[in-house]
């Protein structure tokens, strides 16, 4: 008996092949969708894990703040208790980058436990010195109403903010330090490439660029352009748009006005020890012991930019041709003159050392006479 063979007509064979192909495409499509779903699920899990970690970090930060507030409210609600005049004090150090600000800030950190005040770093996104309007409101409210953090020393790379425009009755005390504008720019240029001895392992934005400052100026590079000198004026000018208009005469005049009328004391990097000495004499609540700590402490010159090469006279002369340098230098000279004027009326020199003058006024002819 021969084999029974079932033969399909050609049309049916073609339909079977097409059906099989469609089925395979459908299966591949479903597999691809499953893979995409799995990838999305994994990404979602990663995102949720990151969000959870961020939530945990914020929860820890809130817990730390609550612990501090609880320590201050053991005897009752702190917000209902009037603070002593010396305790109801806030200092804002809106530090200009590369002006020895880390060296000075470390002194505040070293003294805060002993002198019983708080130090808080104002960390803005990408070190943006200009706050949004809503952040300005939040910041002013924090500074004035956060009694658990008083007395407080706030520091950060932010431009001057006028608290009076927000209806605040008692404004914070502003202090600052500025530096020769070309020296500051040179220091910042090498800092972006080589970092410093404070965090030597941290990768910097321009790391790997071996070009010297002299070479940059000779080639007309953007990182050493005169426009990069425009920083100290806007930091003192503030949050007005004109403050950040490079080369604005109005901005410089406003910066000078604020320095005289809104800042308690502005020192210079080149005479930092004298700046600290004056602060200790005038504000001992915060700076008692600061001068001795600066002279003898290991952190007084903690942060030094590495691989820094001094510019040549030709490079300096080329930058000094710029109107921007002339304005920044005029502001620096103005600040230096003001600082030296204050120092001359506060200290005396003897055998090469400076001494703070004792109280040099008294009261008399007091009426009516007491019985």
UniProtKB/TrEMBL annotation:
One Gene Ontology MF term: heparan sulfate 2-sulfotransferase activity
Superkingdom, taxonomy of origin: Eukaryota
InterPro entries, per the entry: Heparan_SO4_2-O-STrfase (IPR007734), P-loop_NTPase (IPR027417), Sulfotransferase (IPR005331)
Major location (coarse): Golgi
Keyword flag Transmembrane helix: yes
Keywords: Coiled coil, Disulfide bond, Glycoprotein, Golgi apparatus, Membrane, Signal-anchor, Transferase, Transmembrane, Transmembrane helix
GO cellular component: Golgi membrane
Membrane topology qualifier: Single-pass type II membrane protein
PANTHER family: HEPARAN SULFATE 2-O-SULFOTRANSFERASE, HEPARAN SULFATE 2-O-SULFOTRANSFERASE 1
Similarity annotation: Belongs to the sulfotransferase 3 family.
Role this protein plays: Catalyzes the transfer of a sulfo group from 3'-phospho-5'-adenylyl sulfate (PAPS) to the 2-OH position of iduronic acid (IdoA) or glucuronic acid (GlcA) within the heparan sulfate (HS) chain and participates in HS biosynthesis. Required for metanephric development of kidney formation, suggesting that 2-O-sulfation within HS is essential for signaling between ureteric bud and metanephric mesenchyme.
Subunit structure: Homotrimer. Interacts with the C5-epimerase GLCE.
Identification of the protein by name: Heparan sulfate 2-O-sulfotransferase 1
Naturally occurring in which organism (per UniProt): Bos indicus x Bos taurus (Hybrid cattle)
Gene name of the encoded protein: HS2ST1
